Amino acid sequence: MTAPPELLTLGSLRAAQVPFRREKPLLLLAYLSLRGPQERRAVARLFWPDATDPMNSLSVALGQLRRASSTLVHATDTQVSTALICDVSALLRACADTDLSGAQTLYRGAFAAGLPDADLSDELAGWVTVTREHCASTYRDLLLSQARQAAETDALRAGEWAAQAYAVAGAAPPAPPLFRELHALLRAAGHPDAPLLERDAASLNVTLSAPAPPLPGRQAELQQLTLLPAGETLWVRGPAGIGKSALLRAVPAGTLLRARTGQPYATLLGLPDLPHPPPADGPGWARHLGARPGPLLIDDWETCDPESRRALLGLSATRSGPPLILASREGPPTLLPQLILRPLPAGSPEERAETGGLPALRPAGRSGLSLADAYAALLAPHAPRARQLLACLGVQDNPDLRATQAALEFGGDDMAAALERLRQAYLLDGTRPAAPEALRAWLDTQPSLETEVLTLLAAQLPPADALGHYLRAHALTGSSDFPGFQAALAGRARALLAADRHVEAYELLRPHARSPGTRLLLARALDAMGHHREALGILGDLPDTPLVQVYRGRAVWRLGDREQATLLANAGLNGDMEARAQAFNLLSSLALAAQEYAQAHDGAQRSAGLFLLLGDDLMRLKMTCVQAVAAQHLGLDVRALVREMLEAPLDHLPPQMLLNIGWVLEEQGQLDEALGYARQAAASAERTHDLSVAATAWNNVGVLNHKQGHPEPAAAAYRQAIGIARQSGEVRVLAMALGNLAELQESLPLIDEALNILEGAGHDDLASYFRQQQAAFRGRSGET
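Request: output the structure for the sequence above.
Response:
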C-alpha cells in the first residue's frame, strides 16, 4: 500500500501532521520534493533573487522549517533536500494507473492555490504555473476519459463527467479541439454548463463547430422544425436510433435540453440563465417558459421528470410562448401534432444490409462506436425476450415463424406483439432483420445467446435444415453433444455417402461423430476412401450389430481376408432390411471376385430388390450393374440391364457404375467404348477419393490398352493402379495390376511378386491364373 503524501500542495500549501503555515518555505519543500536535491546557491537565487543576501534568506527559511520539525528538510554546506512525499507525485501516479477514486481524493484544488505571484521571481512563478497546469491537465484527461466511456451508453453521465473536466481548478483553457469535444458532450446531455462553456469559447475566439450541413435525408423534417411558429408544439416520434437527437441538434436556433430525473423540475433546471432562485412551482415555470425567446427542444421525453412534463404540457396547452419541440420513442400523452421519423433510404444494398436505414448505424451516426456496439445500443430499450426473438430470426436465412415460436415457447399473441414491437422499432422488415450485417456484428459479441437460439431452433426443424445450426453452435462452443445434432449429422452423411461424395462425408463427420450411428458412417466414408485399416479400427469399437458386421466384412475383404469377410457378410443376413441389403451386396462382390457368377447374380438381384424396398434408388442401380456383370459371365442377355443403367436419372453416374458398364462393353467387344467408361470411372473415383474403385479402374484402363496393342499407356495405367492400391491396402487389385504389368513386360520377377502378395490372402482364383502365367513364362524361357 502506497504511503499517504506528507506534503500537501493541491489546493493549499501545508505539511501533514506539522502545524506550519509559512507559504514560501512550504513552496521550497514542494520544489525540493519534486525536483530532488539542489545546490544551495541555485535555490537561494531562485527563491530570493532580490534579497540583499539570498543565501542568508535561504538559511532563515531553513531554520524556520527545522524549528517546525527536524524531519522536514536536510541541508549541508552545499546542498539542500527533503525526504517528504508530495501529493503531486501521488496524483500523477493515480492518473497514470486510472485510479479515479485516488485522484479525486488527492485533487483538492490547483497547485499552490492562493500563493501570490508578486512574492515570486519570474522563473519561480513560471515553474509554479507549469506545475499547476500540468497537474490540472493530467487530472482533466482522466475525467475526460470517463466522459468518453460514458458517452457510449449514458449521455447524461457523460455530460456530468465533461462538466467536471471543464471545471478543473488551475487548468489552462482547453485547446480548440478539446473545447469542441467538451461542448458536444455537454450539449448532448443538455447540461446547464454548456452555455458557460459557450461564453468562454466566444471570449477566446474559439469556434465550437462549423455550421452543421443539412442532415442527409432529413431536410424536409429539419425545415418543419425550423419553421415551427411560436405557440405551436410538435411531437417528434421514432424508435431509438432513428435520428431524433441528431435532428433536434441540427435545429439552428433554440435551447436543447436532454431530459433528466432525480429531483423536481430536473429537466428544466438545465435551462441557461435561470433566475436565482429558479421557479419553485408550476405557475412560476409557466411564466418563465412563456417569456423565453426561441424554440425550446426537449429530447428523450421518456426520462423527463414528472414536474417538468406537467409544466411543458401546460405551456403547450396555452398555445403561447416559444415553439415547443418534444422528442420521444412513444406517442404523445395528449392530442398533439406529430412528426414520425422513418428509416432513411439506403444508397446501396450493402448499406441497407448494414444500417437498415437507421441513422444510428451509419458510420457518421455511431459516435465512434463499432457497428456491434451501436446495434447493442438500439436493442437496449427492448426486453431480453425481444432480443432473443430477433437473434433467432437473424440466424435463419429464411425465417420459419412456426419453428421460431415453438423454439422460444412464445404464445401466439405474445409472438405477434413481439414481432410488431420490433417492426415499429424498424429492427424487422417483415420477418427478416432490417439490418442483417449489424445484427451479425452484434451476435458475434453474444456467443452464448447465439448458441442458445441455434440449438433451440434446430430442435424444431427437420434434420436436414437443423444441421447448419448445429454446426454453427459447434463452431461457437466446440461441443458436438447438443441433443439432435448426431441425428441431423447422420442424415446428411448418409446422403453424401449414397452420392459417392465420400470425402465430403468424412470431413463432415470427422470432427463431430460421437454416436454409434455417426461413427459407423465415418467408418464407411474411410473404407470408401481406401483407408480400410482406420475404418476397421472404428468399426471394432462399435456394438456387434448385423450392419456393423457387414461393414467390418467389407473392410477385411479389402485388406485380403476373404474367408473372414464371408463370415461377417453372412452374419449380416440376420439383421434388418438395410443390413441384409448390404450383406447381399458384399456377398455378390465376393462371389464375383471368386468367379462364382451364379451366386454373384443371385446376391446382386436380392440386394437390388431390398434397396428398392428401402427407397435407395442409387444403390439399386449399383447392384443392377453388378447383376449385369455376373449375367454377362453367365452368357445371359444383358441388354435390358445395360439400358437401365445408361438411362438412369442421374446427373453423374457413380464411379463403380461407370466401371461396371465399361466391363460389360468390354465383354461385348466394344473396346473403345469400354476404355472411355474405364477412364471416366478412374477420374471420377479419384475426384471423390474412392481409392478402391480408382485402383480397379486404372487397372482396367491398362488391360484395355494392352488388348488394343498400346503398351506404353497400358504400362502407365498399371503403374497408376499399383500406386493407388498400395496406398489403400487393396491386396487383390495390387497383385492383379502388378501381374498384368508383368504379363505386358514378360517379367517373371514381377509375377513372382504378385504371387507373394496373394499368398494366403484368399484370392485363389487370381493366384491360380498367375501360376499358369508363371509356368508359361518359364516354359518360354527354358527355366524349370
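The chain is about 60% helix and 5% strand.
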